[in-house]
Amino acid sequence: MVGVGRSLQGSQGRMAQTDARWHAAFVPNSAHGLASTPRGGVHLDLAPRRVGAMRMSGEPVRKRMYNPSHNIVEDAIKGALQHSGGALARLEYQNSVRVVVRNDDTANRKVEVALLSGGGSGHEPSHAGWVGEGMLSAAVCGDVFASPSTEAVLAGIKAVAGEKGALIIVKNYTGDRLNFGVALEKAKKNGIPCRMLIVGDDIAIEDAPQPRGIAGVVLVHKLAGAAAQKGYDLDKVHEIASAAAKNVYSIGMSMTVCSQPGSKPSDRLDGDLVEYGLGIHGEPGVERRTMGSSAETCSHLVEFFSKRLGEDKKSKPYALLVNNLGSLPPLEMSVVVGDACEALHKAGFTNIDSVMVNTAMTSLDMAGFSLTLLDVSCHDEVRELLYAPTTASAWVQPKPYKADIEVKPCPAPEEATFEAPKTLDAAAKLKREVIKRAAESIIKAEPDLTAADLIVGDGDCGLTLKQGAERVIADLDKLPLNSNADLLSALGICVGNSMGGTSGILYSLGFQGAAAEVDKQGWLGGLKAGTEAIMFYGGAKKGMRTMIDALVPALEAENADQAAEAAVKGAASTASMGKAGAGRSSYIPAEDMKGTADPGATAVGIWLKAAVEAYNELK
């Protein structure tokens, strides 16, 4: 009955046979295997421990930020304590004892039940991030993915437990159960009242006799901590925490396999593969699939809840925790939150009571997330305790869930108040066609502008200019073509409303500046005024590798044909310039941009040349 010889069959039947040697290599000094929970049964580890084929020795390790000559766990504890404002302390380091404790006067042994948790490191902020008033009294930190020693756990119990005793909360892994369990028995022998609560919230495998403990344990910490702070005795705190542990469910997915600092990454999820139901130590999950969208991924995760909980539990009120497993960007996490809520609602979980979004239980650098549902009706005090205040640095307060997003009226954007003429004279028709040709030239050039900006900028120049050009063409029949000043002002508003980023603002400035002077100084004078406005507000000058390097040479020309030619040459000259002096390119090394012209300057040459050619053809 050993997990290291068992294979798991997902819906696509692609799980690998377990290999104990991989387990030993990836999870040093750990005994994560045998476990059982109040949900019943005993078996050896939920999922195989094979971490996946390692890459060839010639491939580099993943870049990580740590001190190879130091103990990474002790360095991390040091940082956590130094930014805690004095709220946290640690026990002396003796024989691998790494225990973070509360450092406040309210941690009175005669008033509160002490709460301890911990386990292997690499899951930060778990568990030291949960130490504080209203949550844990102490966190016992093992090596990365390795349970702390019995000695360390016992030291933690003795440091924080008093007359009211201690509740030890552990995730359902063998090493944690055994080491914390032995320490608990020793503490009881020393006269300290103790109880242990084992949390196994993972629902990856249907009817698993001993599911693993993952992100749901954090919610159990919170409820137990708030109950202890109310002065409840050990039995009462255990009652509430136990009710939560029996009614919390989690499932996760990842696009990558985590890797320990200094180790080479696994290739198990190379390409477009993702995994569902994997463990927080990098254990393979129950199912491997081709990468889908965020909405598809969330829908599939919710299918696990539907199958495991059944229809009768869907109407229960749930608190939802969306947990970042390590390296999912905040932007993508926000997408996931919306998709997860929608997927739950579509699946019949229509009574979402609250939502928490947090990096709560990680797996080093794993790029993935997990969803946790806690039945807040499992005990009559759960809601109150979940919302109770805490000083634990990593806790994020739950927010009431609102399915209907409130949308407020948006103030209307500035629009040109000019009226298009009912009839166009010859000059107006000529201007209309010149503008149209110039805009079309930018749309046609978008791929080349984008390609250049991917080298010298952030890659959005071509698409941004294309958006502005398309809007100009769409509004051609609305433009006040019989008035040069009004026309330029309207074009400024048009591109300002349709183009994002800096380009839209700069072109809007240029058009508005030109509008103020065109009637007094003609088209060349207007172009000069517009260029000066861009230079003043944008801060760029000739020679800085920007659109100014095309505009200024055009102003120095004697006629329109020469102006267009000068703009094209000025843009081309930026390819041999050194470091940019303004814009996104200013952050890019000069050697990386050598040979590539600035796309903003190139665009000026393109539309000015197209405009002049159209004018010469149609005048």
Automatic annotation (TrEMBL):
Keywords: ATP-binding, Kinase, Nucleotide-binding, Transferase. PROSITE patterns: DHAK, DHAL. The keyword Transferase applies. Residues 429-613 form the DhaL domain. InterPro entries: DhaK_dom, DhaL_dom, DhaL_dom_sf, Dihydroxyacetone_Kinase. It comes from the Eukaryota. Residues 68-395 form the DhaK domain. GO terms for cellular component: cytosol. GO terms for biological process: glycerol catabolic process. One of its GO terms (molecular function) is ATP binding. Pfam families: Dak1 (PF02733), Dak2 (PF02734). This is Dihydroxyacetone kinase. It comes from Porphyridium purpureum.
